[in-house]
Amino acid sequence: MPTPYSALSHLDCARCGARHDADQVQGTCSCGSPLLARYDLRLVADLVSPRDIAGRPADLWRYHELLPVRQAGHVVSLGEGMTPLLPMPKAGQALGVPDLLMKDEGMLPTGTFKARGAAVGVSRAAELGVAAIAMPTNGNAGAAWSAYAARAGMASLIAMPVGAPPVTRAECAMAGAELHLVDGSIADAGQLVAKVLQQRPGYQNVATLKEPYRIEGKKTMGLEIAEQLGWRMPGVIVYPAGGGVGIIGIYKALRELLELGWVAGDLPRLVAVQPAGCAPVVKAFEAGATETEPWPDPKTVAFGLTVPKPLGDFLILDALYATGGTAVSVTDEELLAEQRAVVRLEGTLICPEGAACFAAIRQLRESGWLSPAEEVVVLNTGTGLIYPETMPAQVFEPSAI
Ligand SMILES: [Zn+2]
User: Fold this and answer.
1) What's the 12 CA to ligand 1 centre distance in angstroms?
2) pLDDT, tens digit, for every residue of 196-207?
3) How close is the Cα of 308 to the center of ligand 1, in Å?
4) Is the whole-model pTM more than 0.90?
5) What is the per-residue DSSP string for 31-78?
6) 144-169 pLDDT tens trace
7) How high is the pLDDT of residue 250?
8) Neighbours of 180 (CB within 10 A)
9) Which of 39, 210, 307, 328 could serve as a FRET partner for 276 with CA atoms 20 to 30 Å apart?
């Protein structure tokens, strides 16, 4: 028998525990909950070690035993993964946590962390015979999925709010997506997609957590952080949560690594950051709740975070409670001030969503939740280049010289 490329065994419902076949196209469980991919971790341990992984190409497919694609030939890649984990000494000093590191996801294809979920999601969908995908998006996921769909020769249908970053519209259209604009939020875009799909057999709905494999791509952020730290975990990970797939994925990754014995010790305390104009997870966390209430009239410059009710809210909250983490909201003024400060101090043009994490760290130091000795990893989920309207340029007139 040939050596398996993936140790994928089956899918589990995240809520009711029902087991599902991983080798058929799947959406959500009949109970409505997302499905999570499970692996034969004993097989993984037999197949590969951290030492083997060190010798592989520097992309996210280096962890292929822990990813769902069964055959190497089915991988659809634009060179995604292994983004830098940058020391941020000056920003860290300014915030009171000198041991600050930033995982810079702005370096990925299409400029955001969405490339990870799209690469793995599209690859697995193509492997299972899916010929067309459809999704609602706040912009960046649509840009990523339409690019990978083009690479795979797959049709794509994307619906996004009119308020989404304009360049993401252009990215989808340029990649050949059928683009729909919605005067509303991502929830309204989701309703449009569901309606259109009733007339489109053969299209798979790949909305956040409506299929099982996007999260597996996002999981690689957690795998990379552990490997880049020498197969250990940091004290705290700070993450900007919209749909929250990244934080759920990082939590899943670190638990798989613990079970494999590739890392040891306590899981990092996970922090979900949301803008004050759309903070359903923060509100639920503060109430000790296990689910969110839909946020009325979401509004923020950190557009990727305008998700009024994440489908995976119970999984995000579970990850926060289980790790002794927390949830923090920050105002647009605070996050825009940090965006300017970080690029001036470190030269890294981060996105507003990433900037929200820096504003959250400032709050958590002031409240004492974070100690100055803590090793903190912050996720910058995309390049600032996608949001030129958040970056006013000061220009000097020749006459002023
Ligand atoms: Zn279920």
Assistant:
1) 8
2) 999 999 999 999
3) 23
4) yes
5) TSPPEEEEE-HHHHHHH--HHHHHTS-SSGGGGGGGSS-S-GGG---S
6) 999 999 999 999 999 999 999 999 99
7) 98
8) 16
9) 210
Question: Given strand 269-275, what is the order of strands in its sheet?
Answer: 85-87, 100-104, 376-380, 236-240, 269-275, 326-330
| Contacts (Cβ under 8 Å, ≥6 apart) of 282 | 272, 274, 327, 328, 329
Ligand 1 center to residue 136 CA distance, Å?
A: 23
Among candidate residues 289, 274, 221, the one with its CA nearest the CA of residue 251: 221
CB 285 within 8 A of CB 327: yes
Closest CA to 105 of 124, 122, 94, 119: 119
Cα 7 to averaged position of ligand 1 atoms, centre (Å): 23
Judged on CB neighbours under 10 Å (0-12, 13-18, 19+), 246 is buried
- Rounded Cα–Cα distance for residues 126 and 200 (Å): 17
pLDDT at 38: 98
Buried b (16+ CB within 10 A) or exposed e, 215-231: bbbbbbbbbbbbbbeee
What's the 293 CA to ligand 1 centre distance in angstroms? 20
